[in-house]
Known about the structure:
Blueprint: H1 2-26, E1 36-39, E2 46-54, H2 64-67, H3 71-74, E3 75-83, H4 93-98, H5 100-106, E4 113-121, H6 125-132, H7 135-144, E5 147-152
Helix pairs in contact: 1-7
Amino acid sequence: MEALDGAQETDKAELKMFVAPFYYRTNAGKLNPPSSIAIPSSEGEVLVTFQNRYKKLESEAPLVPILGDAIGDYVRQSFNITIKGDDLPAGKEQEIVDAVTELLEKHGAAVAMEVQEALMPVPTFHVTRLSKFTPEQNLAIDRIWPVVAMVKTKGRGK
Length: 158
């Protein structure tokens, strides 16, 4: 079953790779582009949806050659702070949660704090990229920071 799931994920990724150039060319300059491309097949229609979702990007460096000085218009810093409860002293958990930084230091549990940083797109990036950048630039961005795309076959009929 794992092998079939893996093969299906590979097929979906390949389909997205083949459809992306058409999607970016067709929607270049549009402010309200459709999110999906329907592809007829012998088994029925396949829908490739380019969602307004992106995976975390650890560094902006790969995007700087494409977006240049305007990178701040399209990318913002995002981070999460996580406290590993298992690393906190037993019986002191609630007290530490109530005053996180001070109490972590007070109880010698600073090691329990992790800070994870990532870059996330600004809310308008997905639509703006189509109106501001060429299809070639969008494909270059997609190679570095791929948009999450879904492929649906169920319920699409012949």
